[in-house]
Amino acid sequence: MYKTILLPIDVQHEASWQKAIPVAQQLLDEGGKLHVLGIVHDVGNAWVASYLPKGYEKQALNGMKASLTELVARELPGDNRVTTHVGHGHVAETILDMSEKLGAELIVMSSHSPDEMRTFLIGSQADRVLRHSPISVMILR
């Protein structure tokens, strides 16, 4: 049982949280905290960012916060052990930074089934987190 669990999810993809939420709840101590993290991807390129509408990042962050709040209200009703967070940046780095900031003891996250070509080209975010995390990581499929 854990006192602090980080659960990074993609609110737009049910597979990222459907199995992970119940598992994280089971692993959480009675007085523990479940931190649900949504991440707005960093554009990563000034040239690309110049084509986006003014205020895009702020709108994206506000939209993510609203989506997370709605998802938690629907999937975890009345669970006062849950806190939502919105991160911005590269996915794996943001997850690792947030786990350190929160003092998380465990990261619970879902991963898509392996696809050799996709893994070769871009790698899996779960794989990156797993390889670089100083704390335990539970990957669900």
Task: Write a structural description.
By secondary structure, the protein is of the alpha/beta class. The protein has a single domain (2-140), classed as Rossmann fold (3-Layer(aba) Sandwich), CATH 3.40.50. It contains 6 helices and 5 strands; from the N terminus they run βαβααβαβααβ. The protein has helices spanning 20-27, 46-49, 56-75, 91-102, 116-121, 125-132, and strands spanning 2-9, 28-41, 82-89, 106-110, 136-140. The chain has a 5-stranded parallel sheet with strand order 3-2-1-4-5, with helices on both faces. Strand 1, helix 1 (20-27) and strand 2 (28-41) form a beta-alpha-beta unit. Helix 4 packs across helix 6. The model has no long low-confidence stretch (mean pLDDT 88).
**In the residues, how many domains can be counted?**
1
Question: What would you call the shape?
Answer: globular
**What letter string, H or E per element, gives the SSE order?**
EHEHHEHEHHE
The structural class is alpha/beta
Number of strands: 5
Topology:
Blueprint: E1 2-9, H1 20-27, E2 28-41, H2 46-49, H3 56-75, E3 82-89, H4 91-102, E4 106-110, H5 116-121, H6 125-132, E5 136-140
Parallel strand pairs: 1-2, 1-4, 2-3, 4-5
Helix pairs in contact: 4-6
Quick structural gist:
The chain has helices spanning 20-27, 46-49, 56-75, 91-102, 116-121, 125-132, and strands spanning 2-9, 28-41, 82-89, 106-110, 136-140. With 141 residues, the protein is an alpha/beta fold.
